[in-house]
Design a protein that fits this description.
The protein is an alpha/beta fold. Helix content is 46%, strand content 17%. Strands 8-7-6-5-9 form a 5-stranded parallel beta sheet, with helices on both faces. The chain has a 4-stranded mixed beta sheet with strand order 1-2-4-3. Helix 3 crosses helix 9 and helix 4 packs parallel to helix 7.
Length: 289
Amino acid sequence: MNSCNYISICFMLQSMYETRINYLNFILFLLENEIMIRLEDIKDNSSSSGMQEIDARGSQCPGPIMSLMDTFKTLAMGKQVKLVGTDPGLLSDLPSWANITGNKLISIEMKEGLITAVLEKHTENGHNPLPDREDRMTIVLFSDDFDKSVAAFNIALGALAVGMKVEIFFTFWGLSLLRRKPDHPIHKDLEGRMMAEMLPKSDQDLPLSKDNMMGIGAKLLQKIMKDKHIPPLDFMVHLAKYDGVKFIACQMSMEVMEISKDELLEGVEVGGVATMLENARKSTTSYFI
């Protein structure tokens, strides 16, 4: 290759490199300006309506209330925020969040699966003083172990017997205690069907926390309970519900484990972490099992 050809190739490569750099700079310029335009649109929409809006669609507990708290930290006193979400647990969580933080829930409604709420800032520190506690108990039931479930409901029924109010918040594996056969077939994807196979079908299938021995240990304990005239677990569950224990299913856990409300016992409420925390703040005794 002679020197002229070599120099020509060098100039061509340099030109291509500079063209590529200019092209990339142009793309970056467009992206930056598009982002600025979007930010201006958001700012203009917020200022024109006079109300900030939180789009929590698709976000699960505790995401929406965390976004709400972040917004309220910089919100002026008396200003309102509109929150739009799809998590059904917001129907109970937002009133609880407002009570805990000392802010005001102006309105809340659900239409076609979309929840819209308006809240107003009433406190600077975002925290309400502890309320006067009632003679009540909150139990968070995380486990689906047979022995732990028996203990949980034994405590709940004992609390009822001494006049206490009782709420049980069922989360993750604890949801197994609330499952029933639905009245109609429920379509589930592959992951949902796999999760359903992993969960116990009834309280008779719950394992022991220790020495389960492939289910033999649990069957042995059930027999001993029967011989000692101790009520079976399913009877304890229905008795607690009949006598006024409030059952609350964790909405986020239901989403993760693909359990629909149609698969739960009649009368079970659905809520999120704010619902549980409001109940715990009012309780004199709380247990995590």
